[in-house]
Design goal:
By secondary structure, this protein is mostly helical. Helix content is 42%, strand content 0%.
């Protein structure tokens, strides 16, 4: 009886330790999430990493700083540019894909909307939108601002970005880590970390 109790206690203790481990937390965090394969791929490449508690928090809105970090890691950007922003000391803006928010600030802790993210990545990808904004069929296309409409139309045309099942795009909704993982997966194509891969954007 004593041995059985010891055995059960050991099993319970092991289960508790396993549940508290970062790997277990990370697995359960995205295990049944639609973005699991995208996040795992980005994690494999070192683009996205688990938080200090071992989770990925796929539905959490990303900050501008995270957004830049993911892009820099994904496309292996390391060049630094001279900056004069009062709220950051150094940022990889040499490739010209992101600007300040006015008033000499970068607002690194601020968030990005879906249309802002689509525009920035579209500019980074070095294409000039040829798809017409009028071709957009989203039910809320009237909420998409003119500066982003062409980039969104181009991204939709190329299959880089999709809308929601209800037919909307939700341009003003904050972009999440899960959405970012899927968008990067589509834009990157074959990873530079794989044999014979090349980035020609």
């Amino acid at each position: 009886m004593k041995n059985l109790k010891r055995f059960l206690s050991g099993v319970l203790a092991g289960a508790l330790l396993l549940a508290a481990s970062p790997m277990a937390l990370a697995a359960s965090d995205i295990e049944n999430h639609w973005s699991k394969s995208y996040i795992e791929y980005m994690s494999k490449l070192g683009v996205m990493k688990a938080s200090s508690d071992g989770t990925y928090k796929p539905d959490q809105a990303i900050s501008r700083a995270e957004f830049m970090r993911y892009l820099n890691r994904a496309f292996h950007f390391t060049d630094k540019a001279n900056i004069s922003f009062s709220d950051v000391t150094e940022v990889a803006v040499a490739h010209g894909y992101i600007n300040g928010m006015g008033d000499n600030k970068m607002a690194p802790l601020g968030n990005l909307t879906r249309e802002q993210a689509a525009t920035i990545i579209g500019r980074l990808h070095k294409y000039t939108p040829t798809a017409s904004a009028s071709s957009l069929t989203f039910t809320d296309k009237n909420k998409i601002q003119s500066y982003s409409a062409g980039y969104i139309a181009e991204a939709v045309d190329k299959g880089y970005i999709v809308g929601y099942p209800d037919g909307s795009f939700k341009p003003q909704e904050l972009i999440t880590r899960a959405q970012m993982a899927k968008i990067l997966y589509a834009y990157m194509g074959t990873s530079l970390d794989q044999k014979d891969a090349s980035y020609t954007g």
